[in-house]
Amino acid sequence: MSKELIKDPLNIIICGVGGQGNILATELLASALVEKGYFATVGETYGASQRGGSVMSHVRISAATEYGVLIPLQQADIIVSFEPTDTLRVARDYANKSTLIITDSRPNYPLGVLIGEAHYPAMEAIEAELRKLSNQVQIIEATKLAVEAGNSQAANVLLMGALTALPLVPIDIDDYERILEQRFSGQVLEMNRKVLKVGYEQVK
């Protein structure tokens, strides 16, 4: 199935914490878009540490030109996040009522929470605030589903499957899978194909 770009530019933010694989997921997404003939500019911001700090990728998609790499405040069309509190942090700055938000439900507790110096908000409270910021919020048990599929580290690809299912996004699961085939092989490729499909089905 071929999809067209119905908003130009289409602004996507992919975020999480270091070590969750969001940079790789973003690179694969941009490659799939370029192969389909779109301009895809990518800008990244990093938190205090490579692993455990916040990581946010801006992806701006156009059929006509290269846009600046950073999405203006409140102008994200889609936010895909691998960590609930990161979802909320990014949505506060970049979401508007029409932003489509997809987030993993599984917390990634920072050190302060683990040693008892900080409090992690309840998922219900996070979801309630997200729904005040946006009319379109979908929470997916991405890590749980990836574990059930056989790879706890593949939640990033699973969420990319969900992203490709969205009508706004001008690529489909087959386009992303072709990029996976260029990057991986053997059992790793088959596992990524499997979780990509699982994520796609969460939205479809």
Fold blueprint:
Layout: E1 10-17, H1 22-35, E2 39-46, E3 54-62, E4 78-81, H2 84-94, E5 100-104, H3 111-114, H4 123-133, E6 136-140, H5 142-149, H6 155-164, H7 173-183, H8 186-203
Parallel strand pairs: 1-4, 4-5, 5-6
Antiparallel strand pairs: 1-3, 2-3
Helix pairs in contact: 1-7, 2-4, 5-6, 5-8, 6-8, 7-8
**Low-pLDDT regions:** none
Protein structure class: alpha/beta
Domain count, please report it: 1
| Helix segment tally | 8
Order of helices and strands: EHEEEHEHHEHHHH
Tally of DSSP β-strands: 6
| Mean pLDDT over the residues | 91
The first-level CATH class is given as: Alpha Beta
- How would you describe the shape? globular
Summarize the structure.
The protein has 204 residues and is an alpha/beta fold. Helix content is 43%, strand content 19%.
Structural features:
19% strand; 204 residues; globular; 8 helices; Pyruvate-ferredoxin Oxidoreductase, domain 3; alpha/beta
